[in-house]
Amino acid sequence: MNPRQKVLLSMDVFSLLAEILGDVRGSVIDGGANVGEATERMRRAFPNAEVHAFEPIEEAYSVLERRVQALGGSTSAQRLALGDRAGEAEMHVNRNLWTCSLLPASERGLALHGDWCETVRSERVQVVRLDDWASERGAAPIDVIKFDLQGFEGPALAGCERVLEGVKAIYSEAQIIPEYEGATTFAEIDGFLRNHGFGLYQMTDLCLKGEHAEPSCCDGLWLRSDVLERVRRGPAPRAVETGGLQRCVRMQTALEKCAAEGLRRIALYGAGAHTLACGETLAMSPVEIDCVIDDAADRRVALWGLPVVSRAEAIERGVGAIVLSSDRAEAQLIANCDDALEAGICVVSLYEEAGIRMRTGRAAAAGS
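Request: output the structure for the sequence above.
Response:
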């Protein structure tokens, strides 16, 4: 990964919001849910809320639906796109599912992303206004909205002006260089939300693209003015200082140990929230990150441009080490790695009692 490509703040935004907002019991909206990674994080952060995930593309929705069923609780998957008018529209389904949009890629977007933004087919999708959906569905009042709509955030915001009156926080992707034709820009989103009583609190996931490392897009967190005032008056939310930073410190230590041992090409095992939280650390890695391992049969094609592969495929790629990127499932990942150890690949864990631990095939055979 090129360290100039992405600058990430080391925090889980939804954990931060849970700290700021307390016990959320209304609705939380995941607009542009894709395969549900953010949905899963929302479910953990807001255990007493209704979580509603919107994803119109059939391929992504099929994965999202299974994930939502596994999450249980008051979680729903909606095969719908969000906009400013109800009806049908053509979705540009691109080579990389994370870049699909109701808008075609701009020349600048194609130049920055290459075939990621290349449209391979179109798909007829149903579009709803969030105002109408919430009214017809009888959903609990909406407290939190997350939008990741690849330049279509403006129409989606225009379609939820009524529910915005009760919303406390909005977390949205925002284009700085329009990567899609007619994309809503950061300035337009910020101006719209300021006019509706919100103020910018955080910017995360700032993407730097091209030879000049131009800022192309980011994610912004806007809080309703009364919430923002309260946060700024009070002590800093603890979530900024915990989880994400601890993960990043452990990950950085593991990567440095790999470099010190001469292990120059590694695989990360885990394509979920833990890996996403370590983005800044991974962007500055002292070793080459070759791929990401994920056990799910329906794993996505790529994460940050890295191929997402099975363990067997990672072994075939000849990586020197596998770094386990999960705090919740590390024990299971260790148990899964016998094939890697037999192949002589070093397996690096982050959370055992002894701290960072590096296993090799020889050490495993000796019972250490």
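The first strand starts at residue 6 and ends at 7.
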